[in-house]
């Protein structure tokens, strides 16, 4: 169940009840000032709360004033208990809400022969200095002319000539969109990509060979605000977020930049105020990367975990920092195995499960799920067939 806009916590302040009335009055004033001061601060702008506690201990009998129940008692060791409102950022208003009106997702509005020319809005490095490789968050401005739904992809045509087809443009490269239909600016004018810079290293020399670097990924990671980019699409239906049941369970499994569609899902669930979609189910994210510096959008996901602990779970597999139960490197399939009983139970109850990332992730995950199914006395082939039939199984790998 989603949390309400405001949570209540108790502030405990000890107030002595003795012969020294001046101390008694002074401490009581402090207690009252604390209460009203923090009440004003914490309800500012309708914010939402975590836990806040103030405790004072004095070696004297104290008077308890429980302001939430209006009870007052006098007994040694009792304290004043006051309900204080403390909270987190409210959800962000989005527009235009007409983007919710379409009954079917937009598909191939712009084709490779007639792409749309968008503008680079920003490029930001996402990973820390110890991450192997570079991943960038690229925001493009499409002016509201290329609408899309969460889970879809855009095609990008990098500038230049196709070396395999002289005189022709490069082939289209598909990128999963890493934002909701409202974009990072919440106005329906932008879309975001999560792009890993593709580099090639000569196996003999170990040195980078720029001539074989990824054409499109390097174009996007090197782009500057104002640069033009040709896009096609949007495309894809497999990874669309099912919204017919706002209380459904969604299990999301990503490796690296496969996090892109899930960032869009989670922003829609927990960041944006969408009148037609009030998420009250469970979103469970598994993210596999090399190390802590490689975690993508970790600040956003950690905030959802703090704000919506009943609706969001977040597990990471850091292959270069963690070990699995057998002592080997921790990969995302090892995390799945760790929670396999719970995952299978949720799937039996109708949960959706999504996989996004490199093709190489799937064999290990499939082997793990098959092994778990056998241990449970089930046929994985039959179970997988049923999941696909029920439209609970969503895979996008590249």
From TrEMBL:
Molecular function GO terms recorded: ferredoxin-NADP+ reductase activity; poly(U) RNA binding
Alphabetical UniProt keywords: Chloroplast, Electron transport, FAD, Flavoprotein, NADP, Oxidoreductase, Photosynthesis, Plastid, Transit peptide, Transport
Cofactor(s) of this protein: FAD
Gene3D superfamilies to which the protein is assigned, alphabetical: Nucleotide-binding domain of ferredoxin-NADP reductase (FNR) module (3.40.50.80), Translation factors (2.40.30.10)
Localization of this protein: Plastid, Chloroplast
FAD-binding FR-type domain span: 113-241
Stated name of the protein: Ferredoxin--NADP reductase, chloroplastic
Organism: Eucalyptus globulus
